[in-house]
Amino acid sequence: MPAVFLGIRHHSPACARLVADTVRRLRPAYVLVEGPADLNGRLDELTLGHRLPIAVFSHYRDADRTATTWAPLCDYSPEWVALREGRAVGAEVLFVDLPSWHPAFELRANRYADAEARYAEATARLCERFGTGSVDALWDGLFEVAPADGLAERLDAYFDLVRGDADADEGDRAREAYMADWVRAVVAEAGAATVLVVTGGFHTPALRALAARPAEAPGRPALPAPPPGAVSGSYLVPYSFRQLDAFAGYQSGMPSPAYYQQLWEDGPEVAADHLRQSVVARLRGRHHPVSTADLVAAAALTGGLAALRGHPVPARTDVLDGLAGALVKDDLPQPLPWSERAPLAPGSHPVVVEMVAACSGSRTGRLHPDTPAPPLVHDAAARLAAIGATGTRPLTCELTTEEGLAASRTLHRLRVLGVPGRHRTAGPAHGGDPVTSERWEAGPDSGRDAALIEAGAYGATLDEAAATVLAERARTTEPTDTGLAALLFDTVLCGATTLTDRLLTTLTATLARHPDPGALGGVLSTALGLWRHDRVYGTARSPLLASVIDGAVGRILWLVEGAHGRSGTDPARLAALVAVRDALRHAPGLLTVTAEDTTALALRIARDPHTPADLRGAARGLHLTLAPTADPGLTPTADPGLASAALHAAGDPGTLGDWLAGLFALAREEVSADAGDGSLLAAVDSVLADLTDAEFLTALPALRQAFAWFPPRERERIARRLIERRGLRGSARALLRTTADPLHLAAARALEENVTALLDRHGLRSTR
Description:
Low-confidence stretches: 629-642
Helix content: 40-55%
Distance between the termini: 109 Å
Strand content: 5-15%
């Protein structure tokens, strides 16, 4: 007897009802379902008594590729209904699709990604023919709110049009060939018994044709095996309506899961009423006015739209459009999200935000306690219990003790794995930070179980999983990536000693071709801090750290010497030169370059007019800190004329602040030690006093950025000395704490002076 094919749309209540009715009517001996065939021996896990939604999470990892996929299931998923109803009538239920680790799913995070999204030409023509702007609105009108009579025939016609003559991609062809092998084999086993095949409707036309061909080999198809050395597996995870919603970025099935859950349970009329009530309750709960007149208008618009669109009862988009028309009084900067199934855009109208939230719902699935979990879940639970982190009280880790360090590593491993529940509020920010304790606060742990199950893809224990994730980050991080320093410190914090050595070796090899001095500066600062000060994590005086430090210093100096043009102030680049200065001060024995070489290089950069102003200032500062007596012209208190000449080298007022920013970044203490008449600060004051108002207004933003290198106490000291220099009396602290933005004050003063000049020109200013 040939198989009976039911083409369905994933997460469609109408299709779920059709599947349930068909199974009860036919009472098939076999129900074949689109799902990962490697779960066939574990289908009992799916029926333990979970609270849906849940998902089958699958992972795969080899030396070249890491992949994860999800196959979500909710109460109204046709696949779930096929499993439940098939078992209820005594059928053998089998998943017949390729395992999720297979290359056919390489580019798909969701197993049930809609075929309409991949083959959109036919659906676009259908939307145009029926006068609707989205596939979801088209689907609702044709199936969800339409009469159930003839549903199977309408679905066949729809999916035949969607598939048409389009060529399936390589992944779909592989999946369809495998599913067809299953259909042929089971039909041969069944004899005169009924075989029901429930798959995505896009695949159904192809499966009918493929299953009619002679089998190439007898028996059920073999389960593909992962390549040697690869790691793969599948586990059930809790899922949520938020994750299932297309408005949150999910690329499969129906949007607005809370609405469709209500439609599944009570039908379209009750679902429409419940959606309207939910939106109004949310808006009123947030003190958004919704009057009775608004509700009457929304109901009238909804009914009119449903009639105009030929819907026997209001569909989801009818309700949403009616509410939007009655409640949104302003112009909308972007289309309504349900008109094109787009994620909610930033800055969306508050009414639209609440409407989407009401459609989405807040339901979260829950697994039955007997559900098997990967070993990592049990290892994490044991580790958290051992360090006393299972409750909600804050946890302090003393890093100088063995117990505190172990607790810190456990929590950092959970952090890099993305497991919620604890966040660090205090602790060392880098390897040279003298802080030796950490404080971890308890936070929201929603999704922790799912995150741990998903993290189980990387290893059976916390240390193994964290090391795998960090190794993956190291493998995929490009030499130009600015996250190299964070990766290095995370590796140290997690105690991944072997990986730390491997990462340092990789860093040393890539530094020579790294193009960004700012990113190199982050690596250098982290490595230098760990080399100098670390007694906690065990990396102090590491030869590998020494290689990283030497390579980073040489590369940064080479890059800044070749930098030309105007670029404003680049704080990351200046911080890189600060790290170079610190390396020359505190670890000169590690470096190939010497202080003498660097002072000569700094002097060349400082005198090169083509070098960006911030780098010229930084080079002056670097030269000053390394060789303060080598050139009296660079000694702040030696000669005010030369100090002014050094300022003049900054160029026009637009670059003055950039030059000073570089100087202050490298030699803040040296140039601020004296504010007398011969000091550099006095020279800066004189130059600023000579600027016109327009020039000062131009220079002011960069000047503020330059003086931001001084901490508040030093800025107050400078302000006090400048007040004294003018023979005035007043509070330096009050001078720094203006009631308005200095840029606004300067602009206002310039405007007033322009107005005064204009009045004078026309003889209109009062003589009083």
